[in-house]
Amino acid sequence: MASDEEQKLGVMASCKKMVFKAMERIKKVGRDDPRRIIHSLKVGLALTLVSLLYYWRPLYDGFGIAAIWAVLTVVVIFEFTVGATLSKGLNRGLGTLLAGALGVGAQHFASLFGQTGEPIVLGIFVFLLAAASTFSRFFPRIKARYDYGVLIFILTFSLVSVSGYRVEKILELAHQRLSTILIGGATCIFISLFICPVWAGETLHNAIASNIEKLANYLEGFGGEYFQYDDEENVVEDSKNNKSSLDQAYKTVLTSKATEDSLANFASWEPKHGKFSFRHPWKQYLKIGSLTRQCAYQIESLNGYVNRADIQVAMQFRRRIEESCKAISSESSKALSILASSIKTMTNLSSSSGKTHVENAKIAIDELKDTLKSEYVENSDLLGIIPDATVCCILIEIVKSVEKTSEAIDELGQLASFKSTEATVSPEKAPQSQLLHRGIVNPVPDHGERGDHVVVVMVNDDEMEKGKAQALEVRPSKGEMV
């Protein structure tokens, strides 16, 4: 008896544990993106509204059993984003309207051939239109934008044609189905547009900026992670934890192509919203996304050389290239951060400070190349320097990818008319990268043995507190500088 009670308690405990796990998963899904909860409520509202065609007797008397098509339409076309809902809704409406009209016309034309010829003619029409419509789905442009509409066209034309052969009131049947489908589609579009809309264009815009930030975060910590030595035991454990989180972040960029393609397609259906016009250059986002993935694949190769215990390296060579490699990864990270901010704020930040960091990275590349061409490398163990030399080559390719991404974002800024901040930003609010070269010039009179001249004191902001200054002696009479 006791064993049975223990079994019951064990089963109840396991069921309780499973319920708690399910609740935690539900909370996590809702916490990750609260828009999912709102979307679920919107779908429930749309289904409730179109179900009135069944529940309310006057509406049911007008539409009859065809009201089920409104419910099916809501289930099929209501998507997460406005663009996806508009795409499916318009495709379904146009496909149904065109196929219904052709189906009624085909049925009327076939009836002219009598009872013997009518099914033959209808069969020919169904064969020709179904074959032609199916073949059109292989064209890339139609496949991307109108595939669902073509599918609905085939389905509706076949249903109307086949039903028309057995149903006398074919016009009434087509009218009821078309009306209920339009009601269901209009309900979905209205709710999707005016109740907490989720825009595909805005989602794509933020996703591209977020992907660039993930690459910047990885490169920011790469230098300190890669150039670690056995005597730095105090930071090894923390850096491993940071590395695992960075891996998870940048690896999501590698598989972002399908999502970006679908978002760009749906965004092209959306009306003007926020800062995005109807003809916003969404294809340029796909170009930027492709360059971002290219950089992510290079980072994936780079990541393979981090903390590799099975690789023997020449530590003296690694110390020689450490400064240049850290500068390359740091400057590339800063450039990517500025590019991401440029997209987020829709301003032309990349045209100034972003290119400055790219140029700094190129200077570090030149220094790195000089190191690789030195006599020390020629006299070193080839197998010992190959891993580090490979890392150097990958870093050089990453800088090239960053530069191409910067050019693509500049092109996006021109096409989308990004705001320019260069003429409106005051020196006090200038970005940190612009403050590095700003100084204070103070003319100081000096009455020494050399006669009348001026000492110009230049002080950087970063060095002001340290009391450092650089004095340039200028003689007005000869225009000389000492």
Structure description:
Belongs to the aromatic acid exporter (TC 2.A.85) family. This is Aluminum-activated malate transporter 8-like. It holds the Pfam family ALMT. It is a multi-pass membrane protein. The structure is a single chain. With 482 residues, the protein is mostly helical. The protein folds into two domains: 7-194, no CATH class; 200-227 and 248-416, Up-down Bundle (Methane Monooxygenase Hydroxylase, Chain G, domain 1), CATH 1.20.58. It has helices at 2-32, 35-50, 52-55, 57-63, 68-77, 82-111, 114-136, 140-145, 147-166, 170-194, 200-226, 236-254, 257-267, 282-303, 315-345, 350-372, 375-378, 382-415, 432-435, 461-464, and strands spanning 439-448, 451-460, 470-475, 480-481. The chain has a four-stranded antiparallel beta sheet. Helix 7 runs antiparallel to helix 9 (147-166). The model is unreliable at 232-246 and 423-482 (pLDDT under 50).
Compose a concise summary of this entry:
By secondary structure, this protein is mainly alpha-helical. The protein is 73% helix and 6% strand. Mean pLDDT is 80; it is low at 232-246 and 423-482.
